[in-house]
User: Which sequence fits this backbone?
């Protein structure tokens, strides 16, 4: 695996408490295209915060132990959230759970988010858990592709958190809630 000393050293530090990322994921990828080999750039480009809806892992997972571990955690998190929500609604969960191994940390995070007082707090909790996991996975991965993958994922966490807006969230909630009430069968 290649080392990217110069590129890694020139990147701005990421802070979990930052209100916005120091650069966008798009700008990061543009910079990466100048320093990484085509193969490594393709792997880095496959580093996404969320799995596709079908729960399949991107091809880039085979080239990155960090991505493989992160996606297993993310899949277990999504599966546990689906189980908890289905249980609350007394609905079958089978069509929402994807094949994958359970992960204790992901289940714990899902349960904590599920018990949060409001949706914003639940999402913030999940983003803190993602951040913590990614930082742990990147430990001692200095100047490597694995470090850059972790950096890309953390940038995406910061970008996602920066898009959280209380007023827009409340409006979206009211819209969805109205839609549910309008289509509900009150028999």
Assistant:
């Amino acid at each position: 695996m290649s080392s990217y000393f110069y590129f890694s050293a020139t990147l701005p530090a990421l802070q979990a408490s930052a209100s916005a990322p120091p650069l966008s994921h798009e700008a990061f990828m543009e910079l990466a295209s100048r320093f990484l080999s085509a193969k490594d750039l393709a792997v880095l480009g496959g580093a996404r915060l969320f799995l596709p809806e079908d729960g399949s892992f991107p091809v880039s997972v085979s080239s990155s132990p960090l991505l493989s571990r992160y996606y297993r955690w993310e899949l277990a998190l999504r599966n546990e959230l689906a189980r908890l929500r289905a249980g609350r609604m007394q609905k079958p969960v089978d069509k929402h759970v994807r094949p994958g191994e359970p992960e204790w940390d992901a289940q714990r995070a899902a349960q904590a988010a599920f018990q949060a007082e409001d949706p914003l707090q639940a999402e913030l909790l999940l983003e803190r858990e993602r951040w913590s996991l990614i930082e742990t996975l990147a430990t001692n991965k200095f100047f490597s592709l694995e470090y850059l993958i972790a950096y890309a994922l953390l940038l995406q966490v910061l970008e996602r958190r920066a898009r959280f807006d209380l007023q827009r969230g409340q409006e979206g909630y009211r819209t969805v809630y109205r839609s549910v009430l309008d289509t509900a069968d009150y028999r």
Observations:
- The chain is about 60% helix and 0% strand.
- The radius of gyration is 18 Å.
- The chain has a mean pLDDT of 89.
- The CA atoms of residues 130 and 159 lie 13 Å apart.
